[in-house]
Amino acid sequence: MSSEMEVSVPTEIWDSVRELTMLAQRKGSDPLLWALQISSNLNSAGVALPSVELADVLVSYICWENNLPCLWKFLEKALMLKIVPPMFVLALLSTRVIPCRHSRPAAYRLYLELLKRHAFTLKYQINGLNYQKVMKSIDDVLHLSQRFGMTVSEPGILVVEFIFSIVWQLLDATLDDEGLLELTLEKRSAWAAKSQEMEIDYHDSYDEKRAEFKERLQNVNTVMAIELIGQFLQNKVTSRIIYLARRNMHTHWVDFIQRLRLLEANSTALRNSKALTPEALNQLTSDTRIVLSRECKTASLQKFHGVMAFGSLSTSAGLCQGASRSALWLPLDLLLEDAMDGYLVNATSAIEIITGLIKTLQAINGTTWHDTFLGLWIAALRLVQRERDPIEGPVPRLDTRLCILLSITTLVIADLIEEEESVSVDETECGATNHWKEKNVTGKHRNDLISSLQMLGDYQGLLTPPQSVVSAANQAAEKAMFFVSGISVGSAYFECIGVKDVPINCSGNMRHLIVEACIARNLLDTSAYLWPGYANGCINQIPHHVPTQAPSWSSFMKGAPLTPLLINALVSTPASSLAELEKIFEIAVKGSDDEKISAATILCGASLIRGWNIQEHTVHFIARLLSPPIPLEHSGSDSHLIGYAPMLNVLIVGIASVDCVHIFSLHGLVPQLACSLMPICEVFGSCVPNGSWTLTNGEEISAHAVFSNAFILLLKLWRFNHPPLEHGVGDTPTVGSQLTPEYLLLLRNSHLVYPGNANKNRNRRRLSAAASSSSPQPVFVDSFPKLKAWYRQHQACIASTLSGLVHGTPVHQIVDGLLNMMFKKINRGSQSLTSISVSSSSSGSGNEDTSLRPKLPAWDILEAVPFVVDAALTACAHGKLSPRELATGLKDLADFLPASLATIVSYFSAEVTRGVWKPVFMNGTDWPSPAANLSNVEEQIKKILATTGVDIPSLAAGGSSPSTLPLPLAAFVSLTITYKIDRASERFLNLAGPALESLAAGCPWPCMPIVASLWTQKAKRWSDFLVFSASRTVFLHNSDAVVQLLKSCFTATLGLNAMPISSSGGVGALLGHGFGSHFCGGISPVAPGILYLRVYRSIRDIVFITEEVVSLLMHSVREIVSSGIPRERLEKLRTSKIGMRYRQVSLAAAMTRVKLAAALGASLVWLSGGLSLVQSLIKETLPSLFISVHRSEQEEGSEGMVAMLGGYALAYFVVLCGAFAWGVDSTSSASKRRPKILGTHLEFLASAVDGKISLGCDWATWRAYVSGFVTLMVGCTPNWVLEVDVDVLKRLSNGLRQWDEEELALALLGIGGVGTMGAAAELIIENDM
Fold first, then answer.
1. How far apart are CA 134 and CA 86, in angstroms?
2. Residue 376 falls within a domain, yes or no?
3. Tens digit of pLDDT for each residue in 110-145?
4. Per the UniProt record, which residue ranges are transmembrane (predicted)?
5. What residues does 1072 pair with on adjacent strands?
6. What is the average per-residue pLDDT within 636-641?
7. Which of 1322, 1320, 1308, 1291 minimizes the C-alpha distance to 293?
8. Residue 1171 burial (CB count, 10 A)
9. What is the pLDDT at residue 271?
10. Whether residues 430 and 491 fall in one domain
11. Is the pLDDT score of 1311 beyond 70?
C-alpha cells in the first residue's frame, strides 16, 4: 500500500509477519494458531488491532504471488479474530479481485463469500478504536470522496460511500460479465470492474476441462453477485444506508439506477437466480421501499400518527364531530372568503397564493391529489353558494366568486398539472426514470382531476347554479347532450338556442360549467361528456324551430361589420375562444377610432365579467391596450397616448367597478395595471383641457375626465389614504405597508426578471408576458415626475399639518381661483376665503363670472386642492361658510375635477386623525341629522354582535344625547351623500367609501353608527351593508370584543356548544351562508368567521391576536378532551378490553378535532398578520409559552391527554403557520426568510432538549410538541430540514434518542442532507435499524 501506514510501526514488524506467514504456509499450520500468533506478536509490538497495516500486508501477499487456498483461510481467520478491519480488507480486495475475476474466478468467489460474511456486520466495526483511521484508509484506497464529489469526509459519510461503492462495483462487474456494460451511456465502469485481462496473462495452462470449469464458476459467480446486490438492497441496515446515498447523491443515484434497470431488463443470470427475480429487484429500489420518515414506531408517535398522515377525505373527516368531509380544507375556505374583501386589492396573483396553499395542505394533510382537487372544487363551490342571497353595497359580488371557481381554480389546477408533467419530461430528457421519484408519474394529476370531477357530481347541494348563470349552465349541459347524441353543432347554434328549444330536460349545474372551463384549457377532452350521469339524455335531431341566427360572435368571426346591434350582442355575450378575443384585440390596435372604442367596449363587457373560459386572456388584452403601441405615423412632442384618449377612457371606465378591479387582482395584473395607468395619468394630467373627444355614444370627454378616471382607478390599487407604516409588526414590512406605487412597480418589474425555473410556471409566464408587452424594461416612479410630486405631497399631508402656501405664487393664484369657482354665489364682500386660512392672506377678485373654471393641467389643480379644502374647512369652522355651502362647494370642486376627490379624501383623513377640530352637532339644521334611524342602526349592530357571541356591555345606544362628529368627518360625510347611487358615481364612491368608513371607525363611538345612519337614509338598499360595516368598528375600539369573536370562531368550528347560528361545527358554522336581510324584521345572523375576516384589517394591535389564538387553541384542547367522554364512564372502561378500544377511538377522534382547531388557529394568524405575525409567533410567543410556568391544568382521569394533545396541537399549529407563510418548498419569495427563523426555533428546541434552557410548561406538552414538530417537519416539509444547521439537527437527534425516539431521530438525520448523512448511517448501524 503506502509508507504512510508504516510510519508509527517499524517495518521489521511487517517483515516478521510475512516470514511467519510463509513459514505457516510451508508447514500447513492451523490458520487459528497462525492468527493467534500474529495477534500476540502485534500486541507485544504495541500495534493497535484491528490493524489496517496488517490487512494491507496480507492482501498484498496473497494478490497475486501467493494466491493459494490456505492463505485465503489465513485471511478469513484474521477477519474472524478481528485483527484486521473487514471493511478495509473488502476495499483492498475489490480493487484487486474484481478486475481479475475472469482469470481468477475462484478468488472472485472467495471475495463474494467474504462480502456475504463480513459486509453486513458493521456495528462492531464502527465502535472500534481505529474506526476513523480505517475509514480514512478505505477512502485512500477507493478514492470515495473524490469519486462522489464530497467535500466532507467524516467516517459515517465514508461508510455510506463504501457500501454504495461495493454494490455499484458488483453491478458493473455483472453488467460487464453479461456484455451489457456497452449499453450504458458511458459504455464503461467508473470502477475497476471491467476486465482488462488478456490470454497471455493467464498463468494456468489451457485445457478444455479447466476452461469449462472456469466458465461454470464464472456463471455461478455472476448469479451470486446479483444475489448479493439483492441482499444489500434487502438487508435492514445496508438498505437504509443505500437509501441515504439515494437521498444525498442524486446524480450518482440516477446513474446507478439506470444500470440496475438495465440489469433487470436484460440479465440472463438474474432470470436464472432462484433467490431473486427482476420484479423483486425492482421493488427493492421502488419509491415505497425505504422511506425513513414513515417508519416511526415509538409510543408517542403511534399516538401522533394522525398528525403526520391526516388521511383522506373519506376517512379522517368522519372522526371530526360536526365537521364536513372537507374540514381538511378549512384554511382554503378562509383564504377564498378573505379574497372577497372589497377594501383591499391584492397585488399578488390569487393563482400563486392558492397554488402555494394547495401544495401546503396536500403535504401536511398527506392526502392524494384526487382528494386535494376535490377539496379545492368544494371550497370554491361553497364560496359561490355563500353569495346566493347577497347584500347590496360597494363590495365584490357573485362575478368575482365565479371568477375564483371557474377561472382561477381551473388555472391553479392547470399549473399543478403542467408542473408535474414538465418535471416528468425533464427527467426523461436527462436520462432519469420516473419510477424512483415520488409523485411524478406522467398524467397522474390529470387522472386525479378527472376522478375528482366525476365524484363532484355527488355534491348536488353545491352544484345548483345561481340565477344569473342558469342559462350558461344549461347551455353547457346542452353541449354535452348534443355530443352524446352524435349531433355536431357549432358555437353559432348555441348562441341562438334556448332551453325551451330542446325537446327534453336539459338543465345544467355548476359541474357542467367547471368541465367546460377545464376543456377550454385542455385539462379535459370531450370524453368527459360521456361520464355516467353527466349528460341529461339524447335527442335524435336538431330542433327545427330554432330562430334564425342573430348578431353574434360567430357572425363577427365570419366578417360581419361592427354595427351597433352586433356590438351590443358582443358586449352582452362572452367570447367562447381565444381566436375571437384576438380578432377584437387586433381591431382595437389597428382599427379606426370608432372601431377602437367599440372593441374596447366589447372587451370590458361580458368577456371580462363572465368569460370564465378565456378570462385570463381578456384581462391580458385589456392590460396591453392600456399601453398601446406608438403609431408609425405619430410625430411631434406630444405623447402618442393622447391619440388613444377615447379608447383609453372606455377601457378605464369599463374596468373601474369593484368586481372588475378584483378580477384583475385575482389574475395578478394589479402591478401591471398600475404601471399602465401611471403614464396615462402623467400625460393627461399635464394637458391643458382646451379640447375634447366625442365617444360613439355622443358623450364628450376632456383630458381632465381621462385623467380623473385613470387616477382614481390607480388609487384604488393601494390603500393610499393610510399611513405608510400602518400595522407594522417586528422587522418585516406588512402587506398593507407594501402597497405603494413604488412597491407595485417593483413587483411588476420582478415579473420581467424571474428566476431560471420560473419559465416552468404558467402563471409567471402569463405575468411576464403581460409586463413585457407594455414595456420590456423596468419602470420606476421617477419616470413620472408629476405623479411622484403629488405622492410626496400626499404623504406630507398625512404626516404633518398643511404648510407651504406662499402669497403670490402660481399655486396661491390657483387656490384663489378654485375658491372663487366653488363659492362664487356667496357674497362675502371683497375678502377671499384664503384670508382666514392659516396658510395665507390675500384679496380675492370677487368676480362672479360663471366661466371661472380654470383651464389648467390637472396636476396643477391637485397641488392646490389641499390648500383649497383647508381654507374652506377653516372658513366653516369660523362661521364664514355654512355646512351646506361647504358641502356644495366641495361637490363643485369634485365635479370640476373628479380626481380632486382623492386629495380631498387624503386631507380629511389626515385632519380627522390629528384631532384638532372641534366636533359639530348633527342637528338637522346646520348638518344632516342621523336621528331618524340612529337607534335602529345601533340596535342592529348589537344584534349582529350578539348572534356571533360578542357581548359588549359598554356598547350603549346614543339615547337623547346629541350626535356629534369631528368637523372634517362631518364635512366628508356631507360631501359623500351628495353623490347619486348610480353607475356614473360608483367609481368615485368606491374610492371615498372605504376612506370614510376608516375615518369614522377611528373616531370615538358612536361616530360610525352616525355615519351609517346618514348613509342608510341616503341609500336604503345598502342598509344591511352599512350596518354590517358599522358593526365591524366595534372591534377597533374594544380588544375584548376581538377575543370574544375569536372564541366564537373556535366554538363554532368545533361545535363545542350551541351557538345561535349553528351547533353542528365545521366550515358551515364558521363561515355560514353569507349574510343579508333574509328574515323579516332585520338583518340575519352573521357567521363569526365572516365577521372576523371583515374585521381584522382594522385592528391596530394585530400582535395580540397571536397570543389569543394560542390561548384559545389550548382551551379548545381541554374542551375537546372533556367533551369527548364523561369521566365516570372513563373510569368504568379503564380496565376492560372494550375500554382500551374505546380510548383508542376516543383519542383518534379527539386528535382529529384538535388538528381542526390548530388549522383554524394557523389560518387566522396567517391571514391576520401574514409572514411577520408568523415570525413573531415562532421567535417570541412560543419560547415565552414554553419557558413560563403554567398552572397545572391536568384533570383527574384524563391521564395527561390534555397535556399531550396540547403539545401536538401546538406542533400542528406552528408547522401550519410556517407552511402557510413560507410554503413547503422554496418557490415563493417568502421562503427566503425561512432558514433564519426556523433555525432559531430549532436551536431553541435543541438547547431545551440539551437542558441548557429550563422550561416551565408541562413536560408531556413539551415532549409532544418537540416530537410532533419534528415528525411533521420530517414527513411533510423535508425541504425545511435541509436549511437547518447540521449541528442543531445532530443535537436535536441526540435529544430524541434520549427519549427513546430512535426512529424519529434517524428520520431527522436521514433527510438532513450530506451533513447529517454520516450521523444517520452510524445511528442505523448502532441500533441495527
1. 9
2. yes
3. 999 999 999 999 998 898 888 999 999 999 999 999
4. 1156-1178, 1201-1224, 1262-1282, 1304-1325
5. 1074
6. 86
7. 1308
8. 25
9. 92
10. no
11. yes
Distances (CA, A) of 1328 to 229, 297, 584, 1293: 19, 15, 71, 17
Helix (H, G, I), strand (E, B) or coil at 732: strand
Give yes or no: residues 1122 and 1093 share one domain. no
3-state DSSP assignment of residue 1152: helix
Peptide bond into 64 cis (omega under 30): yes
The three cell numbers locating residue 462:
353545491
Contact in structure between 747 and 671 (CB atoms under 8 Å): yes
Distance separating alpha carbons of residues 343 and 798, to the nearest angstrom: 20
Asked, for residue 837, whether it belongs to a domain, the answer is yes
The C-alpha atoms of residue 1056 and residue 1303 are separated, in whole angstroms, by: 36
| Residue 998 pLDDT greater than 50, yes or no | yes
Q: CA nearest 128: which of 1021, 1325, 1036?
A: 1325
pLDDT at 1051: 92
CA distance 353 to 765: 16
Give the C-alpha separation, 339 to 361, whole Å.
18
610-637 average pLDDT score: 91
Which of 1050, 1069, 1097 marks a domain boundary?
Answer: 1097
Indicate if the alpha-carbon torsion angle 885, 891, 893, 896 is positive or negative: negative
The reported pLDDT for the residue numbered 1329 is 62
Nearest alpha carbon to residue 1204 among 506, 302, 559: 302
What is the pTM for the complete model shown?
0.88
Quote the cell numbers at residue 1076: 343579508
Structure confidence by residue, pLDDT tens digits, 218-241: 999 999 999 999 999 999 999 999
* 297: CB partners within 8 A, 6+ apart: 1303
Domain-embedded: residue 237: no
Q: Of the candidates 539, 522, 523, which has an alpha carbon nearest to the alpha carbon of residue 480?
A: 539
pLDDT of residue 790: 92
Helix (H, G, I), strand (E, B) or coil at 12: helix
Least confident stretch, 660-674, 999-1013, 1056-1070: 1056-1070
Answer for the pair 588, 647: CB distance below 8 angstroms, yes or no: yes
User: Domain count of the chain?
Assistant: 5
CA distances from 491 to 206, 513, 575, 577 (A): 85, 15, 10, 10
Q: Look at 835-839, 1019-1023, 1198-1202 and tell me which has the smallest mean pLDDT.
A: 835-839
DSSP state of 694: E
For residue range 565-580, list pLDDT tens digits in order: 999 999 999 999 999 9
Do 838 and 800 reside in the same domain of the chain? yes
Q: Helix, strand or coil for residue 268?
A: helix
- Residue pLDDT, tens place only, 369-423: 999 999 999 999 999 998 776 677 777 789 999 999 999 999 999 999 998 888 7
**Per-residue pLDDT tens over the stretch 694-707:** 887 778 889 999 99
Whole-number pLDDT of residue 506? 75
Which secondary-structure segment (H or E) carries 61?
Answer: helix 52-62
Tell me, yes or no, whether 1093 and 1106 share the same domain. no
Contact in structure between 409 and 377 (CB atoms under 8 Å): yes
In this structure, the answer to whether residues 1290 and 1208 fall within a common structural domain is yes
Spatial separation of the C-alpha atoms in residues 54 and 20, rounded to whole Å: 13
Instruction: Fill in the amino acid letter for 514.
Output: I
Residue 789 has pLDDT above 60, yes or no: yes
- For 492, the domain range is 467-530
pLDDT of residue 1085: 67
Q: Among 1072, 1097, 1122, where does a domain finish?
A: 1097
1057 with 1160, same domain: the answer is no
Q: Is residue 512 part of a domain?
A: yes
Task: Based on the fold, state whether residues 866 and 885 are members of the same structural domain.
Answer: yes
Give every CB contact of residue 165 below 8 A, 6+ residues apart in sequence. Answer: 94, 142, 144, 147, 191
* Euclidean distance between CA atoms 608 and 575, whole angstroms: 9
Greater pLDDT, 235 or 982: 235
- H-run or E-run covering 1062: none
What cell numbers appear for 603 in the block?
372587451
Helix 250-266 crosses helix 236-248 at what angle (to 10 degrees)?
120
